[in-house]
Amino acid sequence: MKIAIVCYPTFGGSGVVATELGLELAHRGHEIHFITYRQPVRLALLNPNVHYHEVNVPEYPLFHYQPYELALSSKLVDMVKLHKIELMHVHYAIPHAYAGYMAKQMLKDEGIFIPMVTTLHGTDITLVGNHPFYKPAVSFSINKSDVVTSVSQSLKDETYKLFNITKEIEVIPNFIELEKTKLEEGATCYRSLMASDSEKIITHISNFRKVKRIPDIIKIFHKIQQQIPSKLMMVGDGPEKEKAELLCEELGIANKVIFFGNSNEIDKILCFSDLFLLPSETESFGLAALEAMACSVPVISSNTGGLPEVNVDGFSGYLSNVGDIDSMAKNAVRILENETNLAKFKKNAYAVSERFDIAKILPLYEAIYEKAIQEQFKTESN
Ligand code: GMT
């Protein structure tokens, strides 16, 4: 199948999921065309069956806002025609589903019929898409998609609650390529560079946005380290990072917290981590938690959104109410204070991650693509 994948190229989860999905589809023989404004961070171009087409928005003094949707829809039209693409899969509703729908209409005018699959990722529904300024356009483009998927049951429920959706939404959870999460053979796990043998290592990875409740992470760690000698690894970059650094200084723990910035080598950090913190305000899935679990790292998270579908309370980690710093710190200590308990939670975390192995999830997408193409064919022949 020839598939166009539209996504954000940044470190956010939706871009990572779209890229990993495209790479695996290419591996299975599909011809994949990534269409976005920059090369996605996890995309290695030297891959058979993988193509990347950059969307350029020409600057013009009249434009106060650059019309990205316009450039994207034109690029989609050109690439579909040039490469005979059979299906568009857009990740993140805003503005991708909207631009995809426009491309579909332009192509239809030329007698080319192409189905569009839209995958909802979370903030496109719960935070940004829900804004009254975007809502009518988001509802419209979801309803006009041929197939709609969401990354968790919770996000599906939320979408029906917040928008007037007439389309069926299919849940296809995010996935992990377990093989890829293992350190390459012979590679060293540099634990001793980060902490002494008597210290535990706690990790957080995100885009440091408000929704991640970064101050909670620092406060939880502040409590943990009063009972368990430990270090905190803060991986990623974003608007809340500077505030977090200041909070560490205020609490007198700056020497125990390492800020890494964005990293493409999270496996090298997760390999020496004992615990992962994700106390988010809302999280449609929590891909970062799944990536941690795949590296046998138990998770302390909030119980919001799709997190209970990923992190199993009392088994792969613990869930607490949003903002309940005391409960999260107490649960972290419960896991870390006893080596046998820690080993059990590590094993369980990996076991839960196996449910989300790419080999189990990818066929669900392939089935949806087949269905979308069949339905398109039926509409065309009527
Ligand atoms: O919040 C982020 O980390 C970025 C955002 C994105 O779209 O890139 O993540 C959303 O999509 C991820 C992949 O499906 C999910 O794992 C995240 O839970 C979701 N974020 C939120 O819902 C806040």
Write a structural description.
The protein is α/β, with parallel strands linked by helices and 382 residues long. It has 2 domains: 2-175 and 358-381, Rossmann fold, CATH 3.40.50; 179-356, Rossmann fold, CATH 3.40.50. It is 45% helix and 16% strand. It has helices at residues 13-27, 68-83, 93-109, 123-126, 135-143, 153-162, 178-181, 191-194, 214-227, 241-250, 266-270, 287-294, 307-310, 325-336, 339-353, 358-381, and strands at 2-6, 31-36, 50-54, 87-91, 116-120, 147-150, 169-171, 200-205, 230-235, 257-261, 275-278, 299-302, 317-320. The strands form 2 sheets. The chain has a 7-stranded parallel beta sheet with strand order 3-2-1-4-5-6-7, with helices on both faces. It starts with a strand and ends with a helix. The chain binds ligand GMT.
Question: Layout of SSEs?
Answer:
Elements: E1 2-6, H1 13-27, E2 31-36, E3 50-54, H2 68-83, E4 87-91, H3 93-109, E5 116-120, H4 123-126, H5 135-143, E6 147-150, H6 153-162, E7 169-171, H7 178-181, H8 191-194, E8 200-205, H9 214-227, E9 230-235, H10 241-250, E10 257-261, H11 266-270, E11 275-278, H12 287-294, E12 299-302, H13 307-310, E13 317-320, H14 325-336, H15 339-353, H16 358-381
Parallel strand pairs: 1-2, 1-4, 2-3, 4-5, 5-6, 6-7, 8-9, 8-11, 9-10, 11-12, 12-13
The protein binds ligand GMT.
Ligand GMT is lined by residues 12-15, 17, 92, 121-123, 151, 174, 206-207, 211, 282-287.
